[in-house]
Amino acid sequence: MYSFEEFRKLNGEEQFNYFISNLATSNKNAEYFVNWSRVNDKVRELSISLNTLNYLLGKENIKEEARYLFNNQPELLKVIPILIAMRVTKKDPTIQILENISLTKDGKLSYLDLKFFFA
């Protein structure tokens, strides 16, 4: 048995092997742990935004294209934490910044907002 600090020092493969070797037999299936109807609703809600982000795939200058895309559709920035599987908490300053994106009079992201994402 590892302490948390010892476990953190293991490489990814060692952590995975330890996890798998310590799983207990259970009569619980995935439905017990995951509310799949909620997941499906969330996927449907986000699928258009996520598909719009596919525009960036294969672009030579992805940073410039991302700036262009987020400048034209700033609401897409709110999908980023979900895309990278970041748990959203109100105390997280990144989430607070995403929720309080300031737009210029013409509806564009300010330079400072973009600089935060592309630093």
Q: What's the tally of helices?
A: 8
- How much is the radius of gyration in Å? 19 Å
For the record, the count of structural domains works out to 1
Strand content: under 5%
- The secondary-structure element order is HHHHHHHH
Q: Summarize the main sheet.
A: none
Give the termini distance in whole angstroms: 40 Å
Write down the overall geometry. flat
Helix content: 55-70%
- List low-confidence stretches: 93-97, 111-115
Structural class: mainly alpha
Number of strands: 0
Mean pLDDT over the full residue set: 76
GO molecular function: DNA binding; type II site-specific deoxyribonuclease activity
Domain Restriction endonuclease type II DpnII-like: 15-102
Protein name: Type II restriction enzyme
Pfam families: DpnII
